[in-house]
Sequence to fold (179 residues):
Amino acid sequence: MDVYEIQLEGKVLEIGGGQRPLFHPNIDAQNLPTVDIVHDLEKFPYPFSDEEFDGILGMYIIEHISWRKVKQFIRELYRLLKPGGKVILLTANLLEQCRRIMHYGVNESTVEMLFGSQEFEPSHLGCHKCGFSPAYAEDLFKEAGFKVRIIAPMPDVYYKDIPLYPACKTDMIIEGMKI
Fold:
């Protein structure tokens, strides 16, 4: 697979879209003009009804959820989706990141890859709080009830023919369908 096209239709929730959401509503912990609902993403439930959305998108957000709360986060995504709904998450592949560190050593580039850019205010929003391998992600999403497809390494990511992210060996895509 050389290209991955984000395909979500109907009512779509974007989680952590920050300054450049593709979908609305956009729920985020940051209080920005582009954020529709400001909410601590580690506080559940989110302010939406059960089975309200046909799709959910989260680009580089799940790794910012505490590893202690990530199972709740995934269950919350499941609660919000209608039957047949799909969640798409782009995230780091911790297993591949560790391989890269073993190969290249610890340096500014590999430290940022592992711990995040830490560019947001408050500063804890930019920190990675958990990590996934394809197998671990698949287990967590299956446990929550999803039918899961993991795409790793991540190919070029597009939305409506617009390039969003270049292919990255240390990243992956998690697709979950509520069945």
The chain is about 20% helix and 30% strand. The first helix runs from residue 70 to 80. The domain at 3-93+128-178 is CATH 3.40.50.150 (Rossmann fold). The chain has a mean pLDDT of 92.
